[in-house]
Amino acid sequence: MQHSSWFRRTVRGGVALTAAAGLLHLAAPAASAAAAAGPAPLAAAAPPAYAADLPSLTTPQVAYDRTANQPAKGVAARGTDGALLYAARSGTGFAPFQSLGGVTVGDPSAVVTSSGNTELIVRGTDNQVYANTVTPSGTVTGYSLVPGLTVTGDIESIVPADEPAGSVRIFARGPEGAVWTNVRRNGSWAGWSSLGGFITSDITASRLYSSIGGNVRIFVRGSDHRVYLNQVSPSGSSGFTAVDDMRVTSNIAIRDSDAINGFEIFARGEDNRVYARNVLVTGSTWKPLDGVSATSDIAVTNRAVYVRGGDNAIYANPQNSGNGSYTGFQRVEGSVTGSPAAFSLQPNGGPLTQYLLARQPDSRLAFNIRPDVGVPTGPFTGYTTISGPTID
Known about the structure:
single chain; 392 residues; mainly beta; 5-stranded antiparallel β-sheet; globular
């Protein structure tokens, strides 16, 4: 998932979320041996705020059901009042935003488990982690605290294939700048553990083809602004490995709507161009996708790359029949004030209708559809506002 910058999200915080059982104000956990042994660019003594070169924009978060042929089940965002908002898919669009209350910091995280529950994970203004659930019938369970860690960034969540059905694994940046993870299996949180390192971006989680060595792969930016990956299993992790020497100035993007999406990453370079990097094929390097100066984080589907340009419009770069090459950036009419999110209607076959979501100048979230017209360059139909509260 892709996020906005840490500083902007922090200064807009309000009153902390309150769980039904009350808040647990714990001391910062001690650094683990893994953290102490991390590579030099990912190790540091104090956790500064995220670097100012990251895009300072919020990003809507799509909740995906990885077992469904039409995986996007809804979208979550932070309201202008700080509350968590959720809009379920309805027909070809979305139901109105529903406020789930609370006062949150930053972008929420959203996933759908095998039971059909939409799991929403947020950071409270006390810098602790809270979970909320929307059931398939639309019932909201309310906030519960995920105790044990003070976080310094947005939370990332994923439904792994190497855990029991219904499990959710989450990641967060800890008080010393390291990556921490926790997993809810069989209804209970296992507890936070450190993966070490020192990161200067949000965390992006992806899934691999198999569970050998761990089904989940995460991507982060280190203090040297290079991208690092780490493969995570129920029993541990591989450790952080640098992905080439290119320095990036955005959070890392993957094909969020694809069930298997841990093989290609995207990021903004220091020249503000969009770059793609295959992390599956040995010998691959970062390759620029020319044609736009990026001013946002990047969204990717199995058929296109999306980013905001200098004129505040979204630019789409479609793939050429899904063969891995791109046709060039094309302007999508309309001004936006946030980073894009995007998904394909059916990424595993069938129609390839594209959905693009972005915050509008009036603080409304809107979606834009490019119907499956049989060619990668079909037009978008125009932005349609999701009704309900405005978003941050």
